[in-house]
Fold this sequence. Notes:
Elements: E1 13-19, E2 25-28, E3 39-44, E4 52-55, E5 62-63, E6 73-74, E7 79-83, E8 86-89, H1 93-96, E9 101-107, E10 115-117, E11 124-129, E12 134-140, E13 146-151, E14 160-165, E15 172-175, E16 184-187, E17 195-196, E18 209-214, E19 223-229, E20 236-242, E21 251-253, E22 256-265, E23 273-276, E24 287-288, E25 298-299, H2 301-304, E26 306-308, E27 312-315, E28 330-340, E29 342-345, E30 348-351
Antiparallel strand pairs: 1-9, 2-8, 3-4, 3-9, 5-6, 7-8, 10-11, 11-12, 12-19, 13-18, 14-15, 14-19, 15-16, 16-17, 20-28, 21-27, 22-23, 22-28, 24-25, 26-27, 29-30
Amino acid sequence: MAYTTINDPSLYFQTVLYTGTGGTRSVTNDGNSDLQPDWVWIKNRGTAYQHQVYDTSRGATKKLLPSNTNDETTDTNALTSFNTDGYSVGSNVGVNQNTKAHVAWQWKANGGTTATNTSGTVDSVVQANTVAGFSIALATAPSSNGVWSFGHGLGVKPDMVITKQRSGGGWWTWHKDLANQTTYYLGLNQTDAQTNESNMWGGGMTSSVIGVSSPNSTLTNQPYIAYCFASKQGYSKFGKYVANAVIDGPFVYTGFKPAFLMIKNTNRAEPWMIYDNKRTPSNQINTVLQSNSNSTDSTAAGDYATDFLSNGFKIRAVGTGYANHTVGNKYIFMAFAEAPFVTSDDGGSIPTTAR
Length: 355
C-alpha cells in the first residue's frame, strides 16, 4: 500500500508571502502545482490589523475576522476573486497595505462547487474534498432552542472543526483531543483554556454530521459556517502533545515535513500560535502569528521556538514559554505538509529531506 495518496501537498495547501501595493493586484502562488483556493486566510504582518478569511462557498468579498466576534461583512476592496493560482485583492489594508508584508494560507476544497447535504436535522450547503480531508459547510440554525446537527460531507468523522456564527459570536472550535467530545470547546478568537459547556456539540461529531446546540433564542435562525478537517497520511495531521517544560521539548510525529502548524495550550490561557515554512524558512522557527490577536509577527525563541523536521516537529521553547509551558500541559495542533515523509511516486518510495 502506498504511504500517501498525496505526493504533492501544494495541490491542496499553500502559503504565499507578498508585499502590499495599496492598489488592485493579483497574488500568485509559487508551489509545485497551481492552486485555486477555496479558503484563504490572510494576515497583514507589518501592521496590527485583523486576520481576514474568505471562501468560495460564501463568495469573494465576504469577510470574516478570526480574531474577533464581528458579523460577516462585504468588502469590495478586499479579496475580490479566487484565481486559477491564487487570488486578487483591492486596496483594503488588511490584505494589501502598501509596502507592508502579508501572508496568506490557502486550502483547496471542491472548486466552489457546492451541494445540498441532508444528513443532519437541518440541511447544509457543502463543498468537500474527501481526498484532502477538508470541507466547508453552511447551515442555518432551526427556529427553536436545543440540539441540532448538519452535514459536513467528509465521509469520515472529522478531527477538527472550526465554526462561526456569521451574524456574530465566537469562533467555537472542536478538536478530537479536547477533554470531552461533546462539551468542551476552544475559541479561535480567544486565549482561554478549553471550556466545558453542557451540550456544546449536541449529539457530537460523526462521519456524517456536526453536532451543535442552540441554548437560547438569540442563536436560533442564525447562519453558520464550519471548516472541517480530517487527517490524511502524509498530508495533514490533527493531534496533541504534552509539555515537558525543557528546551529539549516534545517531538511530534506527523508523517511529513510541515509547511503549516497551529498549536494551542488546552489547559492554560495562552495564544493560538501559527507557524509556517515561508515566513521562517530555516530552523529554529521563532516567529508566530496569533489567531486571537491582530498583532504583527511575534518573535521570541523562549516562547515559540520549534523545529520543522522531515517527519514532524520538535518543540524548543523553554519551560515557561507559550509552546511548552509547565510539565503536563496538553496542547492540540493542526498541521499541513510541505512534503510527505515518504512519497509514493512511480519511481518508487522517496524519503523527504530535513530542512
